[in-house]
Automatic annotation (TrEMBL):
The keyword ATP-binding does not apply. GO terms for cellular component: cytosol. Keywords: Oxidoreductase. The keyword Oxidoreductase applies. It comes from Streptomyces griseochromogenes. Its EC number is 1.1.1.91. It comes from the Bacteria. Pfam families: Aldo_ket_red. InterPro entries: AKR (IPR020471), AKR_Detox_Biosynth (IPR050523), NAD(P)_OxRdtase_dom_sf (IPR036812), NADP_OxRdtase_dom (IPR023210). GO terms for molecular function: aryl-alcohol dehydrogenase (NADP+) activity. Residues 17-309 form the NADP-dependent oxidoreductase domain. This is Aldo/keto reductase.
Amino acid sequence: MRMRQLGRTGIEVSAYCLGTMMFGPNGNPDHDACTRIVHRALDGGINFIDTADVYGYSETEQILGRALKSRREDVVLATKFNGPMGEGSHHSGSSRRWIMKAVEGSLRRLNTDYIDLYQIHHPDPHTDIEETLSALTDLVRSGKVRAIGSSNLPASEIVEAHWVSERRSLHRLRTEQPTYSILNRAIEREILPVARRFGMGVLVWSPLAMGLLTGRYRKNDAPSSNARMHWVPGHLTDPRKLDAVEQLIPLAEQAGLPLTHLAMAFATAHPDVTSAIIGPRTPDQLDDLLAGAATVLDDAVLDRIDEIVPPGTDIGPLDVCYQPPSLTVTGLRRRPSSERAAA
């Protein structure tokens, strides 16, 4: 397993990061099986694990807390806050009030007294970034958190966060966690250059495009009702994505690779990507991914991928990705009808 520096934190992490969203009720409900996956990943050279308080309604963090009981010092452990952990606005978000409560819950469930990387799971348009960074800075100074990062932040908000950190002498975001795969390359335009500029590590999620880059879903085959992402409308049946997959499958065959290995090698080939998050639900899935960890794509293969999906483009953005209020709130992109009429 290749090892890389996590931005300028001084922390060394594996090029594959074990994602745990599939641990618990949303994937594999067998806690012992999940523990075996964790140990097999560590034995396979992975030292980086990512989770979130909302995964499995906090059950995932509990699974990890038990699995890592005797191996905590072997792991760079990352978790996230911001998602809803109860009813009402006081159980989510990025306010100081919630952060201080959320971190204690994660520490307890993870059975640890520190978190290596504590990340803002999604942007919070209702909270000033200075409020969030101030609370996170206090956690770093207290020793409960080693480094702080973000996930799904637009480039402009990353820049704003670094500006606020400099002006207010607050700890800086050290990492960003965006989605990135052959089918979703938009972060190459701004996110990755911004991360490079500020010396941030980048851990990318869904390098297999939520299952599309496994080769299991083909253009003329209807996905089964138990498909992993059947609950994301249209994801597994998007003709544009499936057209690209149909071109990538023979490319992988010509390179003598499974499609999964091609996809993972692509994600980790970018010089600004530190680690790619894998999300195995079973030991067999983990073994398949670990088998391709040393894969390196030559320029001819990467050039062909660029022809199929041009750099910096998305083939239909993932529906689960963060959408800013400027796109989701009608009133922020349309003048009131009375004002339009008067104009």
